TrEMBL record:
EC number(s) recorded for this UniProt protein: 1.5.1.2
The organism of origin for this protein: Natronolimnohabitans innermongolicus JCM 12255
Gene: proC
Domain Pyrroline-5-carboxylate reductase dimerisation: start-end pairs: 136-240
This protein's name: Pyrroline-5-carboxylate reductase
Pathway(s) per entry: Amino-acid biosynthesis; L-proline biosynthesis; L-proline from L-glutamate 5-semialdehyde: step 1/1
Domain Pyrroline-5-carboxylate reductase catalytic N-terminal: 1-80
Binding positions (NADP(+)): A53, V54, K55, P56
Catalytic activity: L-proline + NADP(+) = (S)-1-pyrroline-5-carboxylate + NADPH + 2 H(+); L-proline + NAD(+) = (S)-1-pyrroline-5-carboxylate + NADH + 2 H(+)
Function: Catalyzes the reduction of 1-pyrroline-5-carboxylate (PCA) to L-proline.
Amino acid sequence: MGGAFLKGLSETEQYTLTACDLDPEAREAVAPYCAETTADIDVAADADVVVVAVKPKVIRTVLEDLELSTDQTLLSIVAGVPTDLIEPYTDARVVRVMPNLAAETGNMAAAVTADTVTDEVRAILEAVGEYVEIDESQMDVATAVNGSGPAFVFYLIQAMKDAGVEGGLEEEQATVLAAQTFKGASETVLRSEKSIDELIDAVCSPNGTTIEGMDVLWDSTADDAVADAVRAAERRSAELAEERTDE
Ligand SMILES: NC(=O)C1=CN([C@@H]2O[C@H](COP(=O)(O)OP(=O)(O)OC[C@H]3O[C@@H](n4cnc5c(N)ncnc54)[C@H](O)[C@@H]3O)[C@@H](O)[C@H]2O)C=CC1
Ligand SMILES: O=C(O)[C@@H]1CCC=N1
């Protein structure tokens, strides 16, 4: 996720980016997008904003090694680790963000804690996509919707693509048609003033093809399955917080 963030930010040419990772392969992978890559965490002392992008179980070690001052911002993208567990380890202002992998293409959906976000962080998030400001109590569900969400959408694109292949399309043709359809539909939802129900209605020509497919979906439990997936991810995000609290 840190690599996706770096790649997206590098495209904007607005930031001087330094990547710090213990793994040489990880450093090599992001080197084209950074001014510097290093294993030396002390470089963080020179940054205005320090993004912590390690796995939840590693964050404490990293926080113990980071020495930041009050004029710096520590932006944590670590799932399930609340601000109040991070703050005791640092003098920096702590802002919690749940990003997603689409940062890489400048299409990230992110959620950020409203009571700690600064204009500096807003500018970073805006540079690589769209963000919403939420209460930290909503972070677990946001983690499920937009953090884990890309995987759920990949799954749905695959289901649509597979149906296209089964109907006779080439694998590549079906992939382009399914993925571009998700992309176009997403743009429509973001830009249109119509509700999603009104948009569905606009695609359903009277006695046409879409209404036949929609009747199948409306009669199915597809929406329940999606909601169950979001709830399972949300539960796991809350569990991660509890596991951290236990330590
Ligand atoms: N993968 C995703 O789509 C998203 C991930 N996140 C969050 O981002 C964080 C990272 O997740 P991933 O990128 O999936 O994991 P990852 O395992 O791919 O990346 C973590 C990186 O941290 C490095 N690392 C481990 N210990 C370190 C240390 N002491 N100092 C410096 N670097 C160290 C590892 O070498 C690795 O390159 C997690 O907390 C996750 O919850 C949040 C939103 C989306
Ligand atoms: O699966 C995970 O735990 C991370 C957090 C959100 C997306 N990936």
